[in-house]
Description:
Layout: E1 3-5, H1 14-18, E2 24-25, E3 40-41, H2 51-55, E4 61-63, H3 73-81
Antiparallel strand pairs: 1-4, 2-3
Amino acid sequence: MPYVITDACVKDYLCVDSCATYAIHPGKDEAGTEEVSQLFINPEECIDCGTCITTCESNAIFPMDELPPEKADFAAKNAAHFGL
Length: 84
């Protein structure tokens, strides 16, 4: 999993709009967007370009290897969202 979105996510969809492979879900028009408190990055669709990090104004996205220890549970939460 290259990147992880954490609880700082404000669901402004800037990362979704900038993602070249549409790896960030749920998108604005996808089912389930109202039910989740944050967005998630599908590790099987992500090409590890880092564009999402530069467009995230709430600083909610971290490279997996730079995820702060207090945010480590968000890696599992992201994987669980995609059934991984």
